[in-house]
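Continuing from the previous page of notes. For each protein in this section, the sequence appears first, followed by its structure tokens. Read the first protein now.
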Amino acid sequence: YWWLNANPKIWSFADIAVGEMQSYTLYNENGNKRRVFQNFLDAKSGDMIICYESNPVKQVVAFGQISAEHEDERIFLEKTEGLASPIDYSILRECPELEKMEFFVNPNGTLFKLTRGEYDFIVDMIREENPIASEQPTTKYGKAEFLDEVYMSESNYDVLCSLLENKSNVILQGAPGVGKTFAAKRLAYSIMGEVDENRIELIQFHQNYSYEDFIMGYKPVDEGFDLKYGIFHRFCLKAANYPDKDFFFIIDEINRGNLSKIFGELLMLIERDYRGHKATLAYNGLPFTVPKNLFIIGMMNTADRSLAMIDYALRRRFSFFEMEPAFDSEGFTKYQNSLSSETHEDMVVYKALYGERGTWVRPLSMWDNPIEVDGKTVKRFEYVGENGDTDRQHELHEALRSISSTIGKCEKAILKLNEGTSQHTLTKRRIEAFYIAVSLIERELREES
């Protein structure tokens, strides 16, 4: 068992992908034997390695093993696992069980021996922060299961999968309640081919979400501050450990956060063409990459005004898929028929409440007089306010109130400009034209009301 030091100013374990080989010479750049030279000679193929990065990182960051021993004055090691939550040097240094560890007694060198007890103790500490995912039997999940649960046509599902495959990032946008979050997880299941929660991370953005939460930042610890990895950084390391499996990072309310502030330099790395490329992170100055097997699914409420905050830099890195109410889908039809409920059918058929205004109005009152919709006679559902107004009347009253206020402001502006100089003539004409247009809209609304 071995402890291997890497100087991140020269090379880093982050530069090595899981399963990738790295050679290490028995002599330094000056041709001299490395310190503790005998350790390099004693290293055998299959020996396990604790991978440590020295200053400024000072953390155990990975597991490895010797893959070939002192061949042509070199040893070859393989990175077997990257740690999503590295272990700080200071934590290990305080453990009495490790006080006689060769590296702590004489830290000058590169490769140090570990006893079986020291190695097991360090592994136990690592596993407390980086547990191995339990190998529980998973349920198979594919296209058929997705279409059975999510009310979406097969052609739309194929389009959605193609969009995600094309850019590795997709945003599901639609009105509240159309099932964006529900569909996002099941889209991940169907692409993975199984229901595996260990390969999915679901978060929600909000206005206080920051780069320090998402990537890395200093967090208060006892009397000081420690550099801690954020949730996306850890998930990227986790995905990198299993390059042959797909991982999905799902972001709810993606438009509610300050995206440029949250993603930082990773705004470039999440782009499909830059997956696997490295960029230096601001906080630790070390290279970082977003693995190719990680897909990002965002959800966006199109009724939210913060939609305008999605800038072009982010838009071009994501594909967008519009999710609409699926009353006409085959899956929903089957579900509706299984209920055998006349009330439910009446509510669905009277979808004019949804289609015409784009906002679902919960039926609080039911009129007895039937109406005909789509060739079928149904009971009519309509929202009724506290003052007896129907939902349409309520909308008209609100619109008239707003327009009346606008007309009043226009009239005041015109009177003020009449007192001004000729240089305001063009502005006055524009306001008068706007005033006439708004007045016409008001007249039409009053006629309907």
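Done with the first. The second protein uses the same format. Note its length before scrolling.
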Amino acid sequence: MESNVKQRIKDLLSQKGITVSALSEAIGIPQSTLSRQINSDTSLSISAILSILEYFEDLSPEWLIKGEGEMIRQNIHQTNNQGDNINAGGNLSLDKSVKTNIDPKYVEKLEEDNKRMNQEISKLKDDLLKLQQSMIDLLSKKK
């Protein structure tokens, strides 16, 4: 699975026309570290994945992690092809007064999935902060 995530990162960089070196500088991870994580058997760190997701705001976390859906979410300031608004999180914001042909159960399922994924992202961010603090504590003990 991890090799699939690495390949999707390579695909993303190719589509965006960005080198690993430029990405590493943008997200604050040393180029050698990021390159090794993406291009070798070295494990891809959670912090690298989160940094990539934060840097590419339009990148779909579900696509990156699971390979499901589209790589790029619609721009947060655009509407979709049906004229529906897209909210700041890149999620469809339906006006409840508008009649649609979308099954309400399907919309409810999508909203639940979205909420669950946002909770997972929040948990991953919390875990990252704990790991970073642990690293800081370990490094300060070495001095």
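What the second structure shows: Confidence is low (pLDDT under 50) at residues 86-100. DSSP finds six helices and two strands in the chain. We return to this in next week's lecture.
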